[in-house]
From TrEMBL:
This is Bacterial Ig-like domain-containing protein. SUPFAM superfamilies: Carboxypeptidase regulatory domain-like, E set domains, Thioredoxin-like. It comes from Candidatus Amesbacteria bacterium RIFOXYB1_FULL_47_9. Residues 76-157 form the Bacterial Ig-like domain. Residues 432-489 form the Alkyl hydroperoxide reductase subunit C/ Thiol specific antioxidant domain. Gene3D superfamilies: Carboxypeptidase-like, regulatory domain, Glutaredoxin, Immunoglobulins.
Amino acid sequence: MEYNIDGASEWLPAAANDGKYDGKEEDFSFETTSLSEGSHKVTVRVKSQADVSTSVESSVTVITIPPSVSLSAPAQNPTNNTTPRFTGHASSASGTVTRTEITLDNGATWLPAVYSGGSFGLTTQTLEDGNYQVSARAFDNAGNVGRSGTVTLVVDTIPPVIGGGVQALGPQILTPNENNSISMVAGTETTIAMSMKGGVTGAQIQTGDGNFDLVPQPGTDLWVGKVKFESEGAKEVVVSAVDGANNRAERIFNTLLVEKKGAVSDQATGAKIADAEISVYYFDTIVQQWVLWEGASFGQENPQISGDDGAFSFMVPAGKYYVEIKAPGHRTTQSEILTLTGTSTLNFDLSMRSNPLLSLPFSPPDTVVVTVGGNKQISEKVTKPAVGSDAPTAGLPLENHKNKKLLLTFLSPWSPLSQDQALILSGIDSDEILAVSLQETEARTQVFMQRGSYTFPIVADPEGKSGTDYNVTILPQHYLIDSSGKIQEIITGVLSKNEILNILAKVR
């Protein structure tokens, strides 16, 4: 018994299965040397004792190349779809694809995928939030297995968490006044910075005057943008965020009172005065004299030149000021001295008298009484836990303060006013104070405490869940909680040591 591969000149022996050819019928077998990919002709011949030969031919196809497999992940990745569909293509150069499978756990388990006409697909059962290592494999009729590359699918159904923020005019942080409102003047550009967690890919400030994009700050969780209001009135400022899975979150940041600009007019005719020079002077307590206020540091021009509408406006921090106006053909006019205890708008209307027909060698400026803006009451639309309601406890160690009064202060190391508040808190020796480091890790919070040598008790809330429960918007924000666990007062801004002690003395 001999065999031949592809018509080779050499015939090779085929052994009987029982070791010898001694019967009318024999089973035989042979093992070829390594055959190349493709179809081969196999010829077998047998010779009897009478030297009569008989041969038979057959073919065998050798398939060693595994199927080619490609996998397509869902178009949106991360996704908030908990039953995503995976599709792909599989083909075999020499054989036939017999089945396809998909794994979601890097090969630990495999799920059958429907295969037809070179394509396959699988719609998963409901998946939980998490990361999935997905790949596909295909089998051919020769038993070869081909596998695709691995795709990491992120299933995320949790929306971003919007934390606290600040609003600033240049270096000046704006905080609500005693009437819980922030005032600004139409046309003034301010900066809003917000802390956000949860894979945020885009964020906006939404107002009645349009939408303003926030830009991520590298290496931080901060998103910063510029906002300008052109029209007057109460403006609800809404912060929205979207993550890579298209989950969306939205919070009211605050409500602003946008005031009109002031105007310079002629006292006799009421006509607006163009080309008037309006200057703000500040009393410098260091040199003990009046100096021109450095408006450029706060993103404003000083002096300002009025247009045809006579308009002007300033936003200034706390201090002592007066406004002086000079205009062609009119007497120099000054406001009274203004002592301001907080950020204020200088947007009053001023009327100027014309120059007298007979000019005197020295004519003192006219002095007028004005009303300073920035202290008006507006309706509060930011919903916070109501005074008198139970203080939310989720994620905070408030059980350590059970049956005790507590001043709960929300701050963040990146916030300048939070840093000011931290220094003040360190000067108070009291177990009735607890700070929450909002959307900061334990490690970064400890670095913040060590660098500042701060000693007050603080807990980290990396995801900002407590900030959502308390609806913290502007940092720092304080909640006075009595011994029964009810909120008695909500305060925004930096509190002095005396203010903190007085607040704690109010409740039992």
